[in-house]
Amino acid sequence: MSEIKLTQLSHGGGCGCKIAPGLLQEILGKAQEKLPFANLLVGTETSDDAAVYRLNDHQAIIATTDFFMPIVDDPFDFGRIAATNALSDVYAMGGTPIMALAIVGMPINKLPVETIRSILQGGEAVCKAAGIPLAGGHSIDSVEPIYGLVALGIVHPDRLKKNSDAQAGDVLILGKGLGVGVLAAALKKDMLSADGYAQMISTTTKLNAVGSELSALNGVHALTDVTGFGLLGHLLEVCRGSGLGAEVKFDQVPVLSVALPLAQQGIGPGAIDRNLASYGHDVDFDPRLETWQRRLLADAQTSGGLLVSVAPDAVDAVLSAFGNAGFAQAAVIGMMRQGAARVAVR
Question: 314 and 219 in contact (C-beta within 8 Å)?
Answer without folding.
Answer: yes
